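Module 6 notes. Inverse folding takes a fixed backbone as the condition and produces residue identities as the prediction. Think of it as a translation problem where the source language is geometry and the target language is the twenty amino acids. Below is one complete input and output pair. Work through it position by position during the lab.
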């Protein structure tokens, strides 16, 4: 690779900067909004266990692989696949893997931004005291009225997209690193406070029981697919986000340790959010399976009644919006990096075009909660369809291909050199997981879903 190309591509200022940014990408709406609501829809404990297994056996090995591919090539995902295929002397069609990632990122961001818009709208609601002394029924009504208005959803979606693009346009060091530094610790403390509140409700034990005592009879093949898809989604895997971040990673950093740390932090946040939410669900006679509105219909009840709830509510939704921002920048970075590095766009122009595309696509999701709620494809609303297509199909397929590439196509000598594990056993363990366990698991879940198994 030529030096000029390399120097166009940025680099993190330190290991901690990469950890913060990758954790920022991983921790987002997936943990705090999506994990609790899909856990609720899929019956609780058994789903949580399958999800944790997926993180350990599929997520972590693929995270290591994806970071490794990015760092080896130091390029955007499309070029990474080109370059590494050439290095391995493999078939040119691997090229499409990079492409699929870019497209998945754009589609995910289109609905992600609408939901992040809800979180920002709730900052204002918290500030104006809308939740004060409101019970479960009143809080639900606030939410229902809000999502019934296309104009409001579009307004907040637009605001969120503009903010995302303003950060992305500044490039990785100035934009991304700064945003995450304060976010993670604050978010963590707020979640702990919410858990403490949940402990004071009469349904704390019921919440824990729902989350941690598995009832496997509630598990369908589709819920296993959702648990697996969510492991990819929540760790930002299978679409090149982590690959692109890996490409900004200096050569002397241990990839494996870093990946374990990030996956651990991500899982802890998701579990804490659920431990805070479910007791509130049960204490207020709300439905665990009420879908994407779950956190917006539960946590405000806590903010409306607890001491200091006004401030907590504002802080929480500010944090949630920021957590979403640090993920959304990674959803669009593969597309932007590709437009800049391969198509010769200026960073500004790349941001305008990719941002506009995502914004337009997002309108479909915004309308799917109101005017177009009757529009269904395969029994799913536009939002549900895009979510299923990306999280349950594109990301696992992308992840599967990454595993095959890293385990079977890339030369062992190259992956060994790039990972530079502390001992031979750790490398062997990863190699087995990435070559056999992870791809086989994804494959079997798919076979199960299409009814072959
Ligand atoms: N991991 C992010 C979250 O949990 C979402 C995301 C998915 C980000 C894929 C990047 C890539 O909110």
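Target side of the pair, the amino acids:
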């Amino acid at each position: 690779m030529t030096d000029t190309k390399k120097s166009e591509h940025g680099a993190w200022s330190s290991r901690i900067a990469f950890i913060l940014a990758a954790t920022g990408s991983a921790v987002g709406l997936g943990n705090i909004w999506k994990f609790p609501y899909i856990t609720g829809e899929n019956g609780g404990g058994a789903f949580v266990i399958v999800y944790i297994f997926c993180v350990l056996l599929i997520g972590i090995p693929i995270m290591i692989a994806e970071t490794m591919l990015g760092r080896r090539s130091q390029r955007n995902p499309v070029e990474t696949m080109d370059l590494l295929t050439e290095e391995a002397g493999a078939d040119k069609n691997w090229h499409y893997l990079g492409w699929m990632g870019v497209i998945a990122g754009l589609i995910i961001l289109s609905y992600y931004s609408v939901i992040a818009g809800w979180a920002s709208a709730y900052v204002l609601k918290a500030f104006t005291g809308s939740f004060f002394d409101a019970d479960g029924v009143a809080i639900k009504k606030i939410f229902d009225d809000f999502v019934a208005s296309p104009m409001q959803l579009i307004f907040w979606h637009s605001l969120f997209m503009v903010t995302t693009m303003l950060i992305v346009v500044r490039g990785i060091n100035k934009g991304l690193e700064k945003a995450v530094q304060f976010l993670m610790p604050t978010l963590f403390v707020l979640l702990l406070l919410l858990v403490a509140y949940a402990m004071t409700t009469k349904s704390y034990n019921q919440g824990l029981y729902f989350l941690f005592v598995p009832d496997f009879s509630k598990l369908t093949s589709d819920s296993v697919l959702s648990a697996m898809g969510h492991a990819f989604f929540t760790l930002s895997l299978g679409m090149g986000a982590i690959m692109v971040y890996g490409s900004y990673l200096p050569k002397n950093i241990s990839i494996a340790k870093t990946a374990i740390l990030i996956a651990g932090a991500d899982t802890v946040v998701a579990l804490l959010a659920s431990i805070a939410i479910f007791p509130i669900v049960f204490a207020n006679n709300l439905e665990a399976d009420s879908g994407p509105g779950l956190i917006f219909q539960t946590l405000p009840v806590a903010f409306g009644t607890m001491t200091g709830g006004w401030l907590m509510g504002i802080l929480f939704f500010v944090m949630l919006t920021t957590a979403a921002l640090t993920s959304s920048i990674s959803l669009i970075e593969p597309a932007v990096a590709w437009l800049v590095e391969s198509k010769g766009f200026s960073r500004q122009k790349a941001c305008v075009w990719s941002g506009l595309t995502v914004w337009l696509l997002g309108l479909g999701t915004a309308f799917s909660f109101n005017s177009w709620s009757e529009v269904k494809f395969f029994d799913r609303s536009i939002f549900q369809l895009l979510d299923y297509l990306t999280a349950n199909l594109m990301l696992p397929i992308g992840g599967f291909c990454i595993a095959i590439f890293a385990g079977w196509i890339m030369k062992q000598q190259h992956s060994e050199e790039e990972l530079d594990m502390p001992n031979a056993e750790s490398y062997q363990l990863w190699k087995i997981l990435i070559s056999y366990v992870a791809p086989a698991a994804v494959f079997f879940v798919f076979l199960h879903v299409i009814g072959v198994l």
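Reference fact for the lab report: The chain has one domain: 3-449.
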